[in-house]
């Protein structure tokens, strides 16, 4: 990092540590559902009512519950309460948190706004690929793999929210370098701040890096393998770029998962349709 980037990184960390960082707040509907989940006397009907008060989330939850990814048999679900029961209380909450990033894309700086849009699109691609891999390989819950993909780059939002003004004042290359160097650390912090399960904060903090202190967590491998396949398919990424010279079988996360060429081919065949379906579901 340059001196300028070091100073910016130090400033952002200080803001986080002192509570001065303007972290994205969860929408009121998500906060309501969090409270209900913690109350053992309440259940799916209470959560459905809380979601129903928010048109955006109620529509999105219904679309997701009727999507091929979460409803492969295609039985139409018309009730929010049944949707919550089908997906599961905690999974609905986690999906709402993962989708909350879309609420915060409205920043003033056009370049940062575009960066967040592209980041959200990339995360959706990774989520779909990770979910397909998990279904095929079977060593992780496919829906958890989807959620991990959705939030793995949430640190980009955290950094932009904490330092929009400062990032707007530096050149584009330095800006991207600064975000790249901080997005893992700040992603883990943001997800902890949002009370997401520790495993998702671990994915955000450690994805995209092979290191001695990399946790032995399958979901990180699913996210990194999905990221690799997305790039192999020709999609440009802003961060965590992987060398084009690496063979599929030699990519460590894919090796650890035991993914075969058959698995890879199956994911690549279905990926575009999956992404299209999820775009329609999420809006």
Summarize the structure.
The chain is mainly alpha-helical and 283 residues long. The chain has helices at 3-18, 28-38, 44-52, 55-65, 80-87, 89-99, 110-137, 142-151, 154-162, 164-168, 172-193, 198-206, 218-232, 252-257, 261-282.
Could you please describe the fold and organization of this structure?
Helix content is 68%, strand content 0%. With 283 residues, the protein is mainly alpha-helical. The chain has a domain at 3-23 and 105-274: Hypothetical protein af1432 (Orthogonal Bundle), CATH 1.10.3210. Helix 4 (55-65) packs antiparallel against helix 15, helix 6 (89-99) packs parallel to helix 8 and helix 9 packs across helix 11. The longest helix is centred in the middle third of the chain and has 28 residues, at 110-137. The protein is globular, with a radius of gyration of 19 Å.
Could you tell me the mean pLDDT? 88
Number of strands: 0
CATH names the topology of the domain at 3-23 and 105-274 as Hypothetical protein af1432
The ordered H/E elements are HHHHHHHHHHHHHHH
Q: At CATH's second level, what is the architecture of the domain at 3-23 and 105-274? A: Orthogonal Bundle
* SS-based class: mainly alpha
- Spatial separation of the terminal alpha carbons: 37 Å
Q: Radius of gyration over alpha carbons?
A: 19 Å
Which overall shape is indicated by the principal axes computed on the Cα atoms?
Answer: globular
Question: Class of the domain at 3-23 and 105-274 in CATH?
Answer: Mainly Alpha
| Poorly predicted parts | none
Main β-sheet: number of strands, strand sense, barrel status? none
CATH fourth-tier homologous superfamily of the domain at 3-23 and 105-274: Hypothetical protein af1432
Number of helices: 15
Beta-strand level of the residues, as a percent range?
under 5%
In helices, the fraction of residues equals: 55-70%
């Amino acid at each position: 990092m340059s001196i300028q980037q070091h100073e910016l990184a130090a400033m952002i960390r200080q803001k986080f540590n002192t509570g001065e960082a303007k972290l994205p707040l969860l929408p009121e509907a998500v906060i309501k559902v969090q409270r209900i989940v913690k109350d053992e006397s309440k259940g799916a009907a209470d959560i459905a009512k809380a979601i129903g008060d928010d048109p955006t989330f109620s529509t999105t939850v219904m679309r997701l519950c009727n999507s091929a990814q979460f409803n492969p048999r295609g039985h139409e679900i018309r009730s929010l309460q049944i949707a919550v029961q089908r997906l599961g209380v905690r999974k609905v909450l986690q999906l709402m948190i993962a989708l909350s990033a879309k609420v915060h894309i409205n920043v003033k700086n056009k370049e940062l706004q575009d960066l967040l849009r592209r980041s959200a699109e990339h995360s959706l691609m990774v989520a779909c690929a990770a979910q397909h891999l998990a279904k095929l390989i079977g060593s992780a819950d496919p829906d958890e793999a989807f959620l991990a993909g959705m939030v793995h780059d949430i640190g980009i939002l955290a950094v932009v929210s904490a330092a929009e003004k400062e990032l707007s004042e530096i050149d584009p290359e330095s800006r991207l370098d600064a975000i790249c160097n901080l997005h893992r650390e700040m992603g883990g912090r943001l997800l902890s701040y949002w009370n997401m399960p520790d495993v998702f904060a671990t994915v955000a903090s450690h994805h995209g890096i092979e290191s001695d202190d990399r946790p032995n967590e399958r979901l990180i491998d699913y996210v990194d393998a999905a990221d690799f396949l997305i790039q192999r398919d020709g999609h440009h990424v802003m961060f965590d770029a992987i060398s084009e010279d690496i063979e599929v079988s030699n990519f460590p996360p894919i090796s650890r998962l035991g993914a075969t060429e058959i698995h890879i081919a199956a994911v690549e065949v279905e990926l575009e349709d999956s992404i299209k379906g999820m775009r329609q579901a999420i809006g």
